[in-house]
């Protein structure tokens, strides 16, 4: 079910539980600001999720409430993961779903990194 991104942060969401170590994840990168791990249901040969460590529902919630260090740390982590995984030369796609029309399912900001094949058109036509 897609979530309403205007609702307050829900501490019981799956990614909050992964961050607390209550659920496992296949981690590819972690620092003070971000965690990156494989999506459980990959939509491309490589499908990574990058999440900030703080409690933010969505991109706009994060950009409004996070401090500059959190924002810089998260943005740098997304780029670092892409570089470390060798994705710059072949190319990759970033996606962040927000709210109902975008079908965001997990109410903790996450950026999808898709790679490993020609990724086709940006949106379903
Ligand atoms: P959204 O639709 O919110 O942008 O994407 C949520 C993503 O989280 C989906 O691609 C889904 O496969 C992934 N996901 C859902 N539950 C889990 C989980 O428990 N572990 C991992 N690694 N990914 C999950």
Structural description of this entry:
The protein has 125 residues and is an alpha+beta fold. It has one domain: HIT family, subunit A (2-Layer Sandwich), CATH 3.30.428. The protein is 27% helix and 19% strand. It is built from 4 helices and 5 strands; from the N terminus they run αβββααβαβ. It has helices spanning 14-19, 59-65, 68-84, 99-102, and strands at 27-30, 34-38, 46-52, 93-95, 111-115. The protein has a 5-stranded antiparallel beta sheet, covered by helices on one side. The mean pLDDT is 97. The structure holds guanosine-5'-monophosphate. Residues 14, 23, 25, 37-41, 97, 103-106 line the site of guanosine-5'-monophosphate (5GP).
List the helices and strands and how they pair.
Layout: H1 14-19, E1 27-30, E2 34-38, E3 46-52, H2 59-65, H3 68-84, E4 93-95, H4 99-102, E5 111-115
The protein binds guanosine-5'-monophosphate.
Guanosine-5'-monophosphate (5GP) binds next to strand 2.
Q: Helicity level, as a percent range? A: 25-40%
Mean pLDDT metric: 97
What structural class should be given to the helix and strand makeup?
A: alpha+beta
Beta content: 15-25%
**Helix-strand pattern, N to C?**
HEEEHHEHE
Give the distinct bound molecules: guanosine-5'-monophosphate
Main sheet attributes: strand count, strand direction, barrel closure: 5 strands, antiparallel
Evaluate the radius of gyration.
14 Å
Q: Give, in spatial order, the strands making up the sheet with the most strands.
A: 1-2-3-5-4
Distance between the termini: 22 Å
Shape: globular
The CATH class turns out to be Alpha Beta
Instruction: Return the domain count.
Output: 1
Number of helices: 4
Question: Per CATH, which architecture?
Answer: 2-Layer Sandwich
Number of strands: 5
Give start-end ranges of low-pLDDT stretches. Answer: none
CATH topology: HIT family, subunit A
- The name of the CATH superfamily reads HIT-like
């Amino acid at each position: 079910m897609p979530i309403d991104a205007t609702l307050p942060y829900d501490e019981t969401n799956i990614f909050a539980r992964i961050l607390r170590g209550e659920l496992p994840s296949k981690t590819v990168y972690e620092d003070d600001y971000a965690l990156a791990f494989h999506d459980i249901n990959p939509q491309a040969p490589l499908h990574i999720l990058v999440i900030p460590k703080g409690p933010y529902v969505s991109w706009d919630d994060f950009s409004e409430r996070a401090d500059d260090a959190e924002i810089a740390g998260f943005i740098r982590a997304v780029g670092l993961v892409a570089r470390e995984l060798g994705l710059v030369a072949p190319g990759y796609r970033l996606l962040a779903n927000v709210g109902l029309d975008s079908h965001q399912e997990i109410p903790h900001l996450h950026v999808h990194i898709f790679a490993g094949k020609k990724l086709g058109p940006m949106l379903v036509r």
